[in-house]
Write a structure and sequence with these properties.
The protein has 650 residues and is mainly alpha-helical. It contains 27 helices and seven strands. The C terminus is likely disordered.
Length: 650
């Protein structure tokens, strides 16, 4: 090979390598083109805003998972930095997700109790002071984070992101609404200042409510007052942000304001000693030292961890990706689902070495980032810098923060999830099946627990899809769909439509509906009786379609069936056995059969199967109007006969 050939080959390899790198590490592609004048100020403001929002929310959500609040800040610092080089979304604001947090808490409480009888009777506050128990609890959380990250990475590498399409919007709404109920109930003990035992599993929500009511007389009045004041203030700030959204450069950080005010009051009035208000206590400063997840624990509990990690991982990606995809469409830029899985997988795996559990694009924070003017993922760098300052210098300032404040922040932050239940009447009017999916998922999730509820919701959703695929909508009409120059069919010509392709699961239903709606079923019966020389005589076969006709303008009650036009517009594939059966039935009843609007794939299948050897090629029409014209001509030519034979070339 000459020198020119070697150079050409070398540069070709370099070009392909660069392409791989830019595809798998998108920051290499967009960062050199970053427009400082146009995007920097918006990214800086959005980053500072998101960083401030991270502090109260993520501390509260970490406590929701049963982890120390500082773990929320670890994730708020590290997760955006890990996603930054690998993600394709420009606006995904990674944070601690409340949905994942409550699911984590439920799973870990099942896997990590000290396997003794007495542990179930100990309240969660006491458990968090037990260093041995908390070490096991944190280890289980990191093990799940590692496995979920590995799941995301494998799904992305093998390009299996399409699996999430099986989670419908009603399922997501029903599930997240159920999660919000679990979250609200789990925070009631902090609102009332009570110490209640940990409950998980079936009917755990009911047991928790019963525990609270049994101890209601022991309510800490100071905690209750703090909670009510915080909730009222946060809802007022929420109203102001919505009311004056157009005038505000960035949303008012109500959570941070109330957190600072109540912490100062609690510190100087000594709420913990005077009123017995539970507080956060010592919060470690600095960054966590890297340490691997407990691989021995993973090996010992692999099956249980995998079973519980899969629903959390799939739901985490689905919710986060749906949010990112919505803004990508709105702002007109591409988003790669499989690369998002890889980015989320790397974030989860590396984060599990630094005490970070599963994170994804936060719904609320992503919306705030867009509203605050964020343009690129550089927002993540600025928000992480804000959190880093808190971790290094300001952690001890939250020593006197009451737990009731974080509980109030959690309850108000999930407001949009609670009110999803109000969508039910509208969903009922639009689609009864979607209503059933929402309701079944919500009820099973609330009563059976998050994991069983997830399985029930997914199962019901898939069964519903199968059922609707088996029984698609069928209709008969005596007129074609509206066109510029419609051809009116002669009496005895019927158009049949089915809004689905024909496959093995609905082939029998297609055959039954076509026979029933066109009158072919009765015609075949009469033909068989005549062949058997039955004494029963019929002068004509009435067309039994008056109950099912759509847009009927012609009276067909006294006309015999002469031709059937099958509108194949919605067919992308067909079941050959069903088509052969239909052709045989029409031939037996001496009925002309036309297939209209067949695509190339269907025509190829008919040709390959050998059907066209006995079925006239002319009976495959480009449009329904063409089929009607052919049938009308044939009806005119056969006025002396009662039907048209299928074997005739039309």
């Amino acid at each position: 090979m000459d020198m020119d050939g070697r150079l050409k080959k070398m540069f070709q390899c370099d070009i392909s390598l660069v392409k791989v790198v830019t595809n798998k590490i998108p920051v290499v592609k967009w960062l050199p083109k970053y427009n400082v004048k146009k995007d920097f100020l918006g990214d800086l403001i959005a980053g500072l805003t998101i960083g401030v929002m991270h502090i109260p929310q993520d501390m509260a959500y970490a406590m929701l998972a049963g982890l120390p609040p500082i773990f929320g800040l670890y994730m708020a610092f590290l997760a955006p930095l890990l996603y930054f080089p690998f993600g394709t979304s420009r606006h995904a604001a990674f944070g601690v997700p409340p949905v994942v947090s409550i699911m984590y808490g439920g799973v870990i409480n099942k896997l990590v109790p000290l396997k003794t009888e007495e542990i179930s009777a100990i309240d969660s506050t006491t458990l968090r002071t037990n260093s041995e128990y908390m070490a096991a609890y944190i280890g289980c959380a990191m093990a799940m984070a590692f496995l979920i990250g590995l799941l995301h990475l494998l799904l992305g590498v093998f390009r299996l992101g399409f699996m999430t399409i099986y989670f419908s919007d009603p399922f997501i709404k029903g599930f997240t609404t159920g999660v919000s109920i679990h979250v609200a109930v789990s925070q009631m003990k902090h609102i009332f200042g009570l110490e209640v035992p940990t409950r998980n599993g079936i009917l755990s929500v009911g047991y928790k409510i019963a525990d609270i009511f049994m101890q209601i007389q022991e309510t800490n009045i100071a905690c209750l007052i703090i909670s009510l004041v915080c909730i009222s203030f946060l809802y007022a700030m929420r109203y102001c942000n919505q009311r004056f959204k157009q005038r505000l450069i960035v949303p008012l950080p109500g959570e941070l304001v109330i957190l600072i005010i109540v912490t100062l009051i609690s510190h100087y009035l000594d709420f913990a000693k005077k009123f017995g208000v539970p507080i956060l206590g010592i919060i470690p400063t600095g960054l966590p030292s890297p340490q691997p997840p407990p691989f021995q624990f993973i090996a010992d509990n692999l099956s249980e961890l995998i079973v519980n990690s899969i629903p959390i991982g799939l739901l985490a990606f689905l919710v986060g990706f749906s949010m990112s995809k919505m803004f990508a469409r709105k702002l007109n830029y591409p988003l790669d689902g499989n690369q998002e899985l890889i980015a989320q997988g790397i974030t989860g795996i590396v984060g599990s070495f630094f005490q970070c559990y599963t994170s994804f694009a936060s719904v609320s924070l992503t919306s705030i980032q867009v509203d605050a003017g964020g343009k690129t993922q550089l927002v993540s760098i600025f928000s992480s810098c804000v959190v880093l300052i808190v971790l290094l210098a300001a952690g001890t300032l939250f020593y006197s923060l009451p737990n009731a404040v974080l509980a109030a922040i959690v309850i108000v932050a999930l407001h949009n999830l609670y009110i999803q239940i109000l969508d039910l009447p509208n969903i009922w009017r639009i689609c009864r099946f979607d209503f059933a999916v929402f309701l079944v998922t919500f009820v099973s999730n609330t009563l059976l627990g998050l994991n069983l509820g997830f399985v029930c919701g997914v199962g019901f959703n898939l069964l519903g899809v199968i059922y609707r695929s088996q029984r698609p909508h069928c209709s008969t009409t005596l007129l074609p769909e509206s066109t510029k120059t419609p051809v009116i069919p002669f009496p005895g010509v019927v158009i049949f439509r089915m809004t689905s392709s024909i496959c093995f699961i609905n082939a029998a239903y297609f055959d039954h509906q076509l026979r029933k709606r066109t009158g072919l079923k009765e015609l075949i019966k009469v033909k068989e009786l005549k062949d058997e020389k039955s004494p029963v005589k019929h002068d004509f076969i009435p067309l039994n379609t008056t109950k099912h006709v759509e847009d009927v303008d012609v009276d067909m009650s006294d006309e015999s069936l002469k031709a059937i036009i099958v509108d194949c517009t919605s067919f992308t594939f067909i079941d050959i056995v069903a088509i052969k059966t239909l052709i045989d039935d029409c031939e037996k009843a001496s009925i002309c059969l036309i297939f209209a609007c067949c695509n190339k794939k269907i025509k190829s299948a008919l040709k390959t199967s050998g059907i066209l050897e006995s079925f006239p090629i002319g009976n495959l029409c480009t449009t329904v109007n063409d089929g009607i014209q052919i049938c009308n001509e044939k009806v005119t030519q056969n006025t002396t006969t009662s039907a048209i034979r299928i074997g005739e070339e039309v």
